[in-house]
Fold:
Amino acid sequence: MRNPNAKHINFDFMKGIIPDNYLWLASNIDMCCERKGQFLFAEWKRIYEEIPVGQEKLLKALSLNPNCHVFIIDGYSDETGTEVNRVTRWYKRKKVVQGNSVEDLKRILVDFYKYADKLSVVPDKV
Structure:
């Protein structure tokens, strides 16, 4: 995070705007990368930190999209440093451990970039 003092956004203002789904709220995702129409999403959680139910539903739904690569990273990255204890990929509703270190995460990111770079479909330039 560029600003370690940045506050999290409180989405409670959304409660009730959909009468049939009172608790429908926005969710944040900690990390998002794009390359040639492929998207990598990652949510960082400290050890023993639970993923909220709504966020879990969002991440599972994203994992079903063939252009989305979804990861959960057990660890942290802040002003004190970066620690990665486990990297798990959500793939078609299954969780598969992909690594357990910062170096493994770097490899995953490079592999994603190389995979996307090989694709022949390139979205219109923005």
